[in-house]
Amino acid sequence: EIVMTQTPLSLPVTPGEPASISCRSSQSLVDSDDGSTYLDWYLQKPGQSPQLLIYALSYRASGVPDRFSGSGSGTDFTLKIARVEAEDIGVYYCMQRVEFPITFGQGTRLEIK
Amino acid sequence: EVHLVESGGDLVQPGGSLRLSCAASGYGFSNYAVIWVRQAPGKGLEWISYISSGGLNKLYAESVKGRFTLSRDNAKNSLYLQMNSLTAADTAIYYCVSSDDYGRYDSWGQGALVTVSS
Q1: Closest residue of A to B94, CA-based?
Q2: Which of A52, A93, A102 sits opposite B106 (nearest CB)?
Q3: Neighbours of B66 (CB within 10 A)
Q4: Contact assessment for residue B104 and residue A55, using Cβ atoms and an 8 Å cutoff
Q5: Nearest to A1 by CA among B105, B79, B63
Q6: Beta-carbon contacts of residue A69 (< 8 Å; ≥ 6 apart)
Q7: Which residue of B has its CA nearest to A92?
């Protein structure tokens, strides 16, 4: 199975400052059939179900503010928040769906300083 | 967009069985694949099962293979996760998650809590 490794696991951030979360996969997430990179990012706010932020590497899901962006290639990926707001707190997960079993990173807990 | 509601979570003894249901509302549920993801208390997310839109293709994580069975009834806009031989390691919140036209898993239920304990 593809192992997903996130860093850091905890991320204290001052509101208004940028934040960055890294995710690395043990093998390429590029689909050999269509060339897409099937790496998604989710945010689980306290007491809620996870919500999709970014799909297929860099596409923002509906309603997601443009301060969130996804980038990367092959096996190294990054989620960036341009200016952190208080409502962004929670645990961020990367997930690969290029093959089964679908696997998640361990999660990165973003907290406000 | 599909709206999902899980039910059936409960306290069950080790070795016992439980069936979770996932009821869907909204357009096109029968067109979409669905996965189940669970989250043990204080832990991360774990994919456990997949079912295709028509219900013919099913996949399971090694941790539940042979014990869990996923089915769906598109006429009733519902899915069912039959869980047998439960152990404490199965204690978790179970989420059903629907895909969409682009294969994104973007519709999550609120989760159903399963507690396995004597």
Answers
A1: A49
A2: A52
A3: 9
A4: yes
A5: B63
A6: A54, A58, A60, A79, A80, A82
A7: B44
Neighbouring CB atoms inside 10 A of B65's CB total 11
pLDDT digits (tens, 9 = 90+) for B7-41: 999 999 999 999 999 999 987 888 999 999 999 99
Q: Over 80: is that where the pLDDT of B1 sits?
A: no
What pLDDT, on the 0 to 100 scale, is given for residue B28?
Answer: 83
d(CA B94, CA B100): 20
Residue A48 CA to residue A51 CA, distance in Å, equals: 9
Q: What is the pLDDT of residues A73-82, one digit of tens each?
A: 989 999 999 9
Mean pLDDT of A6-26: 98
**What mean pLDDT, rounded, does chain A reach?**
97
Instruction: State the Cα angle at B92 between B112 and B47, rounded to 5°.
Output: 90
Is any Cβ of chain B less than 8 angstroms from the Cβ of A32? no
Name, in order, each residue with C-beta under 8 angstroms of B86's C-beta and a sequence gap of 6 or more: B12, B14, B15, B16, B17, B18, B67, B114, B116
Interface test with A, best of B106, B107, B113 (most A CBs within 10 A): B106
Nearest to A93 among B44, B62, B110 (CB): B44
> Any idea which residue has 């519709």 for tokens?
B107
